[in-house]
Design a protein that fits this description.
Length: 266
């Protein structure tokens, strides 16, 4: 009985925080639902598995940038140049692979190191010289645009032929690997939660929200299973020529980055 009261009290406390302006992720969730309803009603293909996979792939770059900006926002700062900084690092990766004939496993760390140097330089100007982050990142926003134009040249595009980079951009896990990935991810999430509650019990803390966590975990597992099921159906218009089934390669990459960022924040 006390557990049920605790759950109800938690929900009431959450609603009180929402009314007080501490909305958390609620606007993003509601906005996502509104977008799905609006675009789903405007286009019959928006809610199809094929478009779902395309959205995951196309949003990957923005997702990575957004995860990095979380740390900046938590410090009460702003970064206007993150998009072009990512573009400069991407251009360096592609130039090293295509024009300099470096392997991807050399070009990729090099582009990451260059990004760290760019971010470190901006951080030094803000933290050590006390220049406002808005001023610094507005200046680097313009500077990185010019640097990107210098790197890419007049053509504006560079053709990528490296199979590993193309696979991360366009290819998918097999159906079997997709389900293995789902079960591994779901199992790891559940085990980490159980370990946390077990650690609290050993410390003598009361776990009145265990049932609430079970409900949330069950909902997440159901959503993940539905998404995996949607992504493992055939999405190609001509499966005999090209088969499109499975979770895009970029999804596990994003998940690894998410786990790493969560570990740093915790």
């Amino acid at each position: 009985m006390s557990e049920q009261i605790t759950i109800e009290k938690s929900l009431r406390d959450w609603w009180s925080r929402v009314k007080a302006g501490q909305v958390g992720a609620l606007p993003a969730i509601l906005g996502l639902l509104v977008l799905c309803v609006v675009f789903g009603s405007l286009s019959s293909v928006f809610l199809t598995p094929g478009n779902f996979a395309n959205l995951l792939t196309q949003a990957a770059a923005v997702t990575v940038i957004a995860m990095g900006l979380v740390f900046v926002l938590l410090l009460g700062e702003i970064d206007l140049s993150a998009g072009y900084a990512a573009g400069v690092c991407g251009a360096i990766l592609v130039i090293m692979v295509t024009e300099m004939d470096y392997a991807w496993y050399i070009a990729f760390p090099a582009s990451i190191i260059f990004g760290v140097l760019l971010g470190g330089g901006i951080g030094y100007l803000v933290a050590q010289l006390k220049i406002p982050s808005f001023v610094v990142t507005l200046a680097t926003f313009l500077a990185f645009q010019g640097l990107l134009l210098l790197l890419v040249g007049e053509g504006g595009t560079i053709r990528i032929e490296d199979p590993v980079i193309l696979a991360v951009e366009n290819k998918n896990l097999s159906v079997t690997a997709s389900w293995i990935f789902f079960f591994f991810t779901a199992g790891a999430y559940i085990l980490s939660g159980l370990w946390k509650f077990s650690k609290r019990r050993r410390a003598g803390l009361v776990d009145n929200l265990f049932k609430f966590w079970l409900i949330k975990s069950l909902a997440l597992v159901i959503i993940g299973a539905a998404a995996t099921s949607a992504l493992t159906v055939e999405r190609s218009n001509n499966p005999q020529l090209t088969s499109l089934r499975g979770i895009p390669y970029v999804v596990p990459v994003i998940l690894v980055l998410l786990v790493g960022a969560t570990f740093v924040l915790s």
